[in-house]
Amino acid sequence: MIRLSPALGPLTPRQRWRRARLQAYSWTLTGAYRLGTLNPAIWRMVARGYHPALDWVAARHARVACQFAAVDVPAYRHFLNTRDAGRARLLADFPETTKQNYAGAYDEASRCQEGRLHRPGVIVDESSGSSGKPYNWVRGPRELQGIYRNAAGYIGLVFPGRRLFVINAYSMGAWATGTTTGAAMARIAMVKNTGPDLEKIADTLEHFGPGYDYVVAAYPPFLKHLRDRLDEAGFPWEDYRIRGMVGGEGMTEALRDYLEERFEEVRSGYGASDLTIGMGAESGFSVRLRKRLATDQRLRDALLGPGEQRLPMIFHYNPLETFLEVNADGELLCTINTKSCLQPKLRYNVGDEARLHPLAEVRRALGEDDYAAMWTDERMNLPLLFLFGRKDSTISYMGANLYPQDVEYGLYQGNPYAAAINRFCLSLEELPGLEYRPVINLEVRGEVDHGVLAEICRKGVVAHLSAVSRDFAESLKEDPTAADLRIKVFGLGEGPFARLTKMKNVYLVKDA
């Protein structure tokens, strides 16, 4: 695919005047935000003192960011003109950008402010390629410093400790999460960048001993592998204080419960290589709210909509820095407000389904007493993002959509062989008579009876789907063969897993 490389070209006197005014306004707001992240203690104060009236300021800044890019970013200027949106004024008038219509259609330089890419301190990250093709994303030094401050402020709030020791188990390659996490955590903690190496982490814990407040940062499945590896070695968990910080993909409460049998607590963050790291983050309140949603249909209907059976991740987010919207299709749009963003992200649709709710709305839905009882020490007053995940990560079966998170619940809840499961993915299998059945492919390690494991997992997934999916439960009543979910068990690196070499799990495969 040939990518366009438009130049900024000369600006008219009117455009130059407009550019100067918008730049001054944007830098003023960006500077004010930056003051709130200079120190983790100030960051905590801002997160706890956020007022809903600031939503208007955030929305206005998002509109200014789009207006400024329309005269300052060559690719965005060309993008708007080809869609007859060059004179857009309201935020809703600016068209959505996506990986396909914008990031993949224009080269890196033309998507930068002033069309200038090469500057000292620019870091090039690479997405994992879960969408089929790795993409390069660039971030400037001012932008990175803001990301570091936000991440450090959050960790200091959620994982307090006088002797913080962060073990960074994300990949140390060109992917944004690993290198950014290491640099950010070094602001407030001692850090060892082990990468996803189980033996190095085990050696590190043994070498430095139990005198630290450990935080292991990793993808959720890797944290499970670490728990299982340390259990096998007879690790003295009771002597240590170890907490988990995960990101990169969704996590079920079943997996969290499994991890928190050993880790003191596990919290998740939300970000995207396309956009920024740490767009949203969990608190004790958001975790309790999610667990409540799993059992309270009234609350689920109020916050997610009537009949919604999926259980989203729930994150706090700061609209002053990442202004979020949800379009008519229920997809999340993000505008990075800060002027320090080298490649402005403007109403960018990453493909995630979501809902947004102010904290006051959640408070009304819960009721005063329940709301007060769910608060924890973090007390973040930021609005909430309810994230369902990527829209294309499902398999349709018997009129119901099967989501990887629902499958994961069924695999882990009450399963005595959960430690043997390394990872899983979904596929469809064609049967005689042009009939299809979903297949749950399991990669297992160690000595375990494949037949016994497959049957336990099948029953667990069917039971969970019956409980959370009305469509599946109804299909099961009408046709008992709907319970015929196929489970295929493979050894390490066998079957479809021979092709899945990325660090982030791939949950939907073809031709398994």
From TrEMBL:
GO terms for molecular function: phenylacetate-CoA ligase activity. It comes from the Bacteria. Its EC number is 6.2.1.30. Keywords: Ligase. The keyword Ubl conjugation does not apply. The keyword Transferase does not apply. InterPro entries: ANL_N_sf. This is Phenylacetate-CoA ligase. The lineage of its organism: Bacteria, Bacillati, Actinomycetota, Actinomycetes, Streptosporangiales.
